[in-house]
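Two records follow; treat each independently.
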Amino acid sequence: MSTNKKTAKILIAFFISLILPKFLIASQMIQVHSLSMNRNIPNLVTIPQTIKSAGNKKNPKFPVLYLLHGYSGDYRTWSEVLDIQSLAERCECIIVCPDGAYNSWYWNNPSDSINRYETYLAKELISYVDSNYATYGTKGKRAVAGFSMGGYGANYIALNHPELFTCTISIASIMDITEFSEQWDMADQLGPFPKNPELWNQHNLIEIFKGLKSINMTWIIICGREDFAYPGTLRAFEILKKRKIPHQRISLSAQHSYSDYGTTLYNTMDTLKTIFKR
């Protein structure tokens, strides 16, 4: 094929993407500018193609699931291990996979003013998605889920911003970060645990759970019995039970890998679909 023909095809595809309504474009990589971090952040947005799922409306609206990757991943990670389009069709929702950087932990880094991923997700990204896609823009039609570091991030952001999400799906979350205080670059951001226990406890889910009085969301906690995150998850269950905090537990045979949780996450979309239809 000649260079001119290749160029023409690229230009045609580009102009078609500008003309088509966004709800007809299945999956897009988008750059969202973060004012708090002064840079563009990549995200993968996947939209269900079953238009009838939105009630056969001429201009359908969809719920949104924010799906967070784990440590060392990026916005492409979930799409490399799962069929995100099938996930979106089953849930009948838009799925947004944000880039949480290699090691952000989805918090605002206390050691610098550059990495503000909690602010980005809770304020900037949600605002952008609701302004540029066919969403409802309400808590009742918005959920967050994540694996490992992303599971931690889903819990942390949902509990810090209870006005945002109607459902949180925590998959193999690191519930007690002090168990792994010398791993995954956390000490680079929070300082050494022995010298900064107060700062660590402010970011430690186990400690945050101890202060919970109530929640206004469906909380699904998934962890494999062979997963190294399981002991921390069991302690989390004990705390939540003692404080009478409603949550759903899913235990299964799984180690700490995306692939071990794929089927469970896929099946959980049925529950999420029901929640979105309330």
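The next record belongs to a different protein.
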Amino acid sequence: MSSSADRAPADMAARLEGLRAEARYRRERLDLYRARAYGSGLVTEAGMRLRERECENAEQRLRLAQSEAAAHEQSERGAPWERS
């Protein structure tokens, strides 16, 4: 039986993977919209701003989660002077 401490790293890894996938999806969607704008020109400024905002928000969520994961990992290891 695994404890919640054992599940925490797995949950965090799964969350990070999901956020990476979402950020990648949003970047790809923005890239496709940009390509469409250059090709046919049948895009709206509002649509472009929306996709840019979605991409930025997804990347910000990913950066925040990565920062939290790094802080959690650091706290699990403890301070250098506390290690034996």
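Discussion point: The chain has a mean pLDDT of 88. How would you locate this feature using only the token line?
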